[in-house]
């Protein structure tokens, strides 16, 4: 059984900084690795976090700090969620129980947290580009430092990583690339590059030939040979590299020296491999094979399930704080669940509907869709730009593509959204998951999509107030197919999910759909008509819950309007509300203030003023996120911190509406 009792950590206790680690032998480092794995499993049972990926890189991280010297040398982590071991070894172990907690350790890497973190890392496929930039700066200033980029085989599928490899092979700067190959990103890796990596691991013949060629190169200077023999040897060496049709050659063709495959859980082998390349002045790639979830049975068996875990989800749960399990109690549905189930039900009568995801099938719930309609499901790996443009091509030829993507990842494909989808007004539906605040911090906050999508012509930008609305928005957008539509929803339990299930049971999956007037807003509470709340998306339910407290504590009963669309606005209703010259209007949104939903209301008001300069309009105030990056922490805590929780809205709006 896998115990989660507090582990004994003799070696880990002695390693307060990387300097202590350098004193350990390789056998002692192996013991250290075992202790670190126990510590990670124990700690994440309390905090939650990325489990399987960190268990897989223990030996790699130890070896990196054994061979290199941070912060002088730069170690760049791609994505960054696999840097827990790095944090432990660089003076942050004493705070590890605060991981991903509000005001605690960041779940990713950030220079603001430690000088050993060379750069912010939250998105994939960036580390090699960063390494190229840092190597160029190093050589420009004549500095003596090593630059190491750690990237997974999933991250290598990203176009940005391939662009960086192409450039690095051209400029031939001294960069060490650690390719951590575990055959996984968040979901299972797919595509030609994934198959290519598998071929490399099966071809140890290449490794043997490569070592012999390198041996010849290193010892040519020692031999006293006439020019003709020298020329012959050079020709044979070139022919060997050109003609061996083995997978590793492709990196050599791009100008990157390839070494591997290397057992990533043999710390001695990894140390030796790093020592062999660390002083090279040309690009080096070490192909290291690891197992996600290494050392923890359940994670080894199901690395997708244990990629990221909530607190107290490990087996067995900690007895002192684990919640009792209620037999037969269904798990609460999330908005991701509702979205995926809507796609499945619509696909039953829309044979041209297809679903696309950039390597987030698990997180977005699309695995369910893939099992029902495997031939209509496309996981394109970590390639957000390709996902969007591929969807545009599908739409142009008559399919009805749905791109399921996290808000924070859609940012990476904005050129394609504008150039390939919006300009041609193609009917692509974007299901924007994690729209709003999330626990993962600055790099993952999905708070910009309202603003950047509002700025694009032809787009309809929607946000449902509950599960029923989300389902009907999906149905309506697919049926109408009038142009690009974005539906954003939070990472949260779905409001009214139980009512939706009852509706489906009563009417069946198909008849339970109802078309919704996507660009018409709805007055949910008439209120006094003088104080008006325009709430967008997730803020509708929070505002609704705040109304009784405002009435009880402040004696005010605002009108509550459910604004389905941030673009286009419901111009008829908005003209009516703005025309109430004595009224006060407050807009609410879980997004940035600049260019957001509230900004759109004020923009519309400014146009009305030009139409009738002498007419007095209602005052408009905006409540949105402050102009700053939002740290990590639980969503309820963050909502309260930025003034968007039920209690915070009551405290702010009650006095505001009664001030005059």
Notes on the structure:
About 2% of the residues have low confidence. It contains 28 helices and 19 strands. A seven-stranded mixed sheet has the order 9-8-10-11-13-12-17, sandwiched between helices. The protein has a five-stranded parallel sheet with strand order 2-3-4-6-5, with helices on both faces. A five-stranded mixed sheet has the order 14-16-15-18-19, sandwiched between helices. It is α/β, with parallel strands linked by helices and 660 residues long. It folds into four domains: 254 residues, Rossmann fold (3-Layer(aba) Sandwich), CATH 3.40.50; 43 residues; 177 residues, Rossmann fold; 137 residues, Rossmann fold (3-Layer(aba) Sandwich).
